[in-house]
Amino acid sequence: MALLNDQFEFTRPQALTLTAGLLQLAFGWFDVFGLDPNYHVVQIGVGALGVAMAWRHDLARMYGILLLLSFGMLAFSLNDLTTESFLEVRTALIGLVITLARPAKRAQN
Question: Which domain of life, per UniProt (predicted)?
Answer without folding.
Answer: Bacteria
